[in-house]
Design a protein that fits this description.
Elements (H helix, E strand, L loop, with lengths): L1 H16 L3 H13 L1 H24 L1 H7 L1 H23 L15 H13 L2 H11 L9 H26 L2 H9 L1 H24 L1
Helix pairs in contact: 1-8, 2-3, 2-6, 2-8, 2-10, 3-6, 3-7, 3-8, 4-7, 5-10
Length: about 200
Amino acid sequence: MLATWISVAIICALGAMSPGPSLVVVLRHTLRGGRMRGAAAAVAHSVGIGLYALLAMSGLAVLITASAQVFRAFQWAGAAYLAWLGIKGLLAKPSPDMEMVPAGTNRGAVRDGFFVAFLNPKIAVFLIALFSQVVGPDTSWPERAVYASTAWLIDMLWYLLVAWLFSSPKWLRTLQRRAVWFERIFGVVLLALAARLLVETLR
């Protein structure tokens, strides 16, 4: 089991480190509200990953990916949410002292972190593809729990590391002085990701 677990851990780490909307959302909240806001988004995102991992283990996630209508509904919802976040970023305004006002709350970070994961059906596809290689009818539930927990824990640790690094006092103030431009760049990136997801849905 150890060799299998190592393989699962490596693949989960590579998946977590892949740049995408999740990284953008965690960075956005880190620059907006500091380390605690970024950490809140990171932990909430990992909850979404952990939930999909459990669903993949139980087989329920297969229903999401097997039904074209359900899968498309998740894609539409995900694209709409990313577009909403992108518009918010584009409309960001600088504060008088040239620093980003920590608008919003940890609750907003938790909401964005969770939904950017939960409304991405590709995560279900990724986890089903991964776990189908290591989980069989004879795999015990304790073993399944270990694999699901691995996906959750690695995702959480990676994005907590991202929040910690980008909230370092050495350069957080410098980043926050330019945060409105980062916010707008994030907005453009999120809108582009939403558009790509929409195009994939229409194909």
